[in-house]
Design goal:
- The structure is a single chain.
- This protein is an all-alpha fold.
- It has 17 helices and two strands.
- Strand 1 and strand 2 form a beta hairpin.
- The longest helix is centred in the C-terminal third of the chain and has 35 residues.
- It starts with 26 loop residues before the first helix and ends with a helix.
Length: 486
């Protein structure tokens, strides 16, 4: 595997004469995928959840800082992986190469059937929530289903509103744009990322100006800065807030999923991932500083639209509504990048004979994994109709962070088993940085399971169910290879 500098923007050749993906993502589109995915619904919707989990400002900021450092460590490792193995599927390719095909398959199965559809559905649900802030009728329940779940003492209820079908419509539109090709999706991503970065800067700069001039009262409460005692409750609150923070930071690995379509991957991966992540971490910390300085802590705990509430406190309610419009556009950008990158795992697995065969087709004209995009859209639509933003995000993160840790472990193993593999970029601080990331990833996964054991256990069972399909697909792929060799 070469450094990536000799790759052209023409088709990436695979087996046979089938049409293939093309290297059509330049530096600007690649940067838009990294930053555009990270700056999405999470930064605007998670501060309230984090405030409720943490209980004090100090723990909230500790979670943002630790989550940012942990994500940056992961990004440094993924920059090495993407530069040295620029293939579609990201973790699927790394785990298959580092630990064997079954490990790659388990990630791919989890990603394709559970994590990415739930992630895309959660982003669509966040988009619908922003729209409901503008048009409250969208959140009015059309009907409510009451029921009882095993092992739960309290009954559950599910309210169906116009927000769910709105989420499905947004999924269909975005999937169609990406069906038209990587360049169409990339151009849309660049435009939407510019809008979302500018909107975040407007909130931050506007807030800092008002606070600096003393034209707005600061609401930092001394008793809310740090807990008087650190006990298990506070530690649990920190990990709960950390889980929300890493969801907001999530997306630093999305560029790796489209590795076979990145131009000059040996340079693009480290440049885009490291620079993009550092910028996002700074923006997120500044945004939270403005929020927790401008509004009382209790107001943030109860807010459903923190950014709009903050900007309304500066410039009035009308300005806050415009911020909500911009946040809806921001959510659309995150939805686009997540849909664009996610379908590449389905495609890579299907090309290897380890997934539904139709998902491995590439559109002869648009050179997009069209069938994989349709499959992902259908799965995400089902989840969008059945879950809320918080339910879907908690289902995603548990399984995802387990495999993030395994992917970095595969990088360490390949340093030993494949010392001659060209590595245009090597992880800074190796081996300390990868080891710390692996420890943090597994600690985070355990804390998620302890906080939400039922949802996490459901996710784990769904992952292990993939083994039944693996044996069948593996046998079929072996038979196909034998017939091809004849």
């Amino acid at each position: 595997m070469g450094s990536g500098r000799g790759y052209s923007a023409m088709a990436v050749k695979q087996k046979g004469s089938r049409p293939d993906l093309i290297r059509g993502l330049g530096v600007s589109a690649a940067a838009a995928i990294v930053m555009g995915t990270m700056i999405g619904t999470g930064i605007f919707l998670k501060p309230s959840e984090m405030a409720n989990q943490a209980g004090v400002i100090g723990i909230v900021f500790a979670a943002w800082i630790v989550g940012g450092i942990l994500s940056l460590f992961g990004g440094l490792c993924y920059a090495e992986l993407g530069a040295s193995i620029p293939e579609a599927g990201g973790e699927y390719s790394y785990l298959r190469r580092g630990f064997g095909p079954v490990w790659g398959f388990l990630f791919g199965w989890m990603h394709s059937v559970v994590a990415r559809p739930a992630s895309v559905a959660a982003i669509a649900a966040g988009l619908a929530r922003f729209c409901a802030f503008l048009f409250p009728v969208l959140a009015t329940p059309l009907y409510v289903i009451h029921g009882q779940m095993p092992f739960l003492n309290q009954p559950i209820q599910f309210a169906f509103t116009w927000m769910q079908p709105l989420s499905v419509v947004s999924l269909i539109v975005i999937s169609y744009v990406n069906y038209l090709g990587i360049r169409a999706g990339g151009r849309l991503q660049v435009a939407l990322t510019i809008v979302k970065v500018l909107s975040l800067l407007v909130i931050i700069v506007g807030g800092l100006m008002f606070l600096h001039r003393g034209e707005h009262m600061t609401h930092v409460e001394i008793g809310r800065l740090w807990p008087a005692n650190l006990g298990w409750k506070e530690i649990g609150g920190f990990f709960g807030a950390l889980a929300a923070a890493v969801w907001a930071y999530d997306g630093w690995n999305d560029l790796n999923l489209v590795g076979s379509e990145v131009e000059d991957p040996g340079r693009t991966f480290p440049r885009v991932i490291v620079t993009g992540m550092l910028m996002v971490i700074v923006l997120f910390l500044l945004f939270n500083y403005v929020c927790f300085t401008a509004l009382p802590f209790s107001s943030i705990q109860t807010s459903r639209d923190v950014a709009s509430d903050v900007f309304s406190s500066f410039a009035g309610k009308a300005a806050g509504l415009w911020i909500t419009v911009i946040m809806a556009i921001s959510a659309l950008g995150t939805l686009n990048s997540s849909a664009l990158s996610g379908a590449r795992v389905d495609y890579a697995m299907a090309r290897d004979g380890l997934f539904f065969r139709f998902a491995g087709a590439v559109h002869p004209k648009y050179r997009s994994p069209g069938n994989a995009l349709i499959f992902q859209c259908c799965m995400a639509s089902l989840m969008a109709l059945s879950g809320t933003f918080e339910d879907l995000t908690s289902l995603v993160m548990f399984g995802s962070w387990i495999f993030y840790g395994f992917a970095v472990a595969a990088m360490i193993r390949m340093r030993i088993t494949e010392p001659d593999l060209p590595r245009p970029f090597r992880t800074w601080g190796y081996p300390l940085v990868p080891v710390l990331f692996i420890a943090g990833a597994f600690a985070l996964a355990v804390s998620m399971w302890l906080n939400r054991p039922i949802r996490s256990s459901i996710g784990l069972v769904l992952i292990l169910c993939g083994l039944f399909f693996y044996r069948s697909w593996r046998t079929r792929a072996a038979q196909g290879s034998a017939e091809f060799s004849k």
